[in-house]
Amino acid sequence: MIKDKSLIAIYDGPIIGKVEVPGDKSISHRAILLSMLSIGKTNIENCLFSDDILRTIEVSRLLGTKISKNGLSLTVDGLGLDGLKKPLGTLNFGNSGTSMRLLMGILAAQNFESILSGDSSLINRPMDRVADPLIKMGANIQTTSGRAPINIFPTNGLKSINHDLQIPSAQIKSAILMASLFGSGQTTIKTKTKSRDHTEIMLRDFSSSISSENNMIHITGGDLLSPGQVQVPGDVSSAAFLILATLISKSSELIIENVGLNPTRTGFIKIMKLMGGNIKTVINNQKKSSEKIGSIIIKSSKLKGIKVPKHLITSAIDELPLVFLAGACAEGSTIIRNAEELRFKESDRINSMIKTLNTFAIKTKEFNDGATIDGGTITGGIVDSFGDHRIAMTAIIASCVSEKPIIVENCKNIDTSFPTFQKIMNLIGMNIKEY
Ligand code: S3P
């Protein structure tokens, strides 16, 4: 395989500063898609512009949406629920699972055919988990053995369903919610574990009939009205890299401002506190948003190994690679279980982290649904990103405690979620260069 970009990271002193991180990826995707489906013009402030978001923008444009960018804000001219046009050719979702899955819900309700595909990582991820409930609603979807490429054929309308969601996935939930907008009856989704609820929160802002109580969500189709403006908070999943870098680096102190602090996303902060991390969060919704926004204050800490509580797994799902690394830096052992969903991300994140930590001379034991990690001394060395942005960035953060430099190969994928990662990390005291 031809290598793309490699990065080298060498520890270079304390992490100090007051920073912001770019806009939340999950919220940016939803803001673009709901703006497209609504009546009126929406200004999306502090939108993330990463490769995954560019895929959502590109596909929305191919469906006929007018979108213009001005600095960090994006203006979307809504098409309404009936306004989407048949796209020419195959829709390429690159590496972006969220774009593909949420758009499956929208495209399943159209009276035209669409073909969805993506890069080598995306076409190996399960899509039947989204196709199945949509088929139950009456959609006409053909996957390739449960994966992409996917053909979605025209439909004459979807029906409402009562769905018991077994997998704790916000992407499946959101695809069903998107599809429900196009029907007339009431769809009910029952969830076992609460996953991120940005779609539900934003649908209310767009005047949808959605309501939720305990573990039930109810939605009836009908027009969406643009609220005029959506404020995207900083991405707490990106902030997590800065948080762990600060905790494990000596004499460090960092403030991250304007970050999303929705409780369905803050499992990582709770896990780090249980491990002894000195972290404070202050909710401070200065900017107009229905999402909780605030600051995170972090100081260097001596971490101790824990058994990660089951109830925190879903709200920390994208940050679990960092929990593996925190375990390697902690005194004692850290046990992560009930995390089988990690095997279906951009890479098999359980296996990718085991291999990465083993290269750094950390002892681990792999389970089907997680691992045990023994705290130790991280030696450093050369690792691969396994085609996964979060594995690449986690490995780089290990340089804050490693004996030797860390080189991570094939890191171009960092641009899918956090294109300014290298710049921001260097600003607060790391030393990351192209290799
Ligand atoms: C996301 C949901 C999660 C998460 C992904 C983004 C979303 O995936 O891992 O990075 O924006 O809805 P699942 O829904 O598959 O758990």
Describe this protein's structure:
- It is a single chain.
- The chain is of the alpha+beta class and 435 residues long.
- The chain folds into 2 domains: 7-23 and 233-434, Enolpyruvate transferase domain (UDP-n-acetylglucosamine1-carboxyvinyl-transferase, Chain), CATH 3.65.10.10; 25-231, UDP-n-acetylglucosamine1-carboxyvinyl-transferase, Chain, CATH 3.65.10.
- It is 28% helix and 25% strand.
- It contains 12 helices and 23 strands.
- It has helices spanning 25-37, 51-62, 97-107, 128-136, 170-180, 198-205, 236-248, 267-274, 320-329, 349-359, 389-397, 421-427, and strands spanning 7-9, 16-20, 41-45, 66-70, 73-77, 91-92, 114-117, 140-144, 147-153, 162-165, 186-191, 211-213, 216-220, 229-231, 253-260, 278-283, 293-299, 333-336, 364-367, 370-374, 381-384, 406-409, 432-434.
- It has a 4-stranded mixed beta sheet with strand order 21-22-1-23. Strands 2-15-17-16 form a 4-stranded mixed beta sheet, covered by helices on one side. A 4-stranded mixed beta sheet has the order 4-5-3-14, covered by helices on one side.
- A hairpin with a 2-residue loop joins strand 8 (140-144) and strand 9.
- Helix 1 runs parallel beside helix 3 (97-107), helix 1 (25-37) packs parallel to helix 6 (198-205) and helix 3 packs parallel to helix 5 (170-180).
- The longest helix is centred in the N-terminal third of the chain and has 13 residues, at 25-37.
- Bound molecules: shikimate-3-phosphate.
- The site of shikimate-3-phosphate (S3P) has 10 residues, from helix 5.
- Shikimate-3-phosphate (S3P) binds next to helix 5.
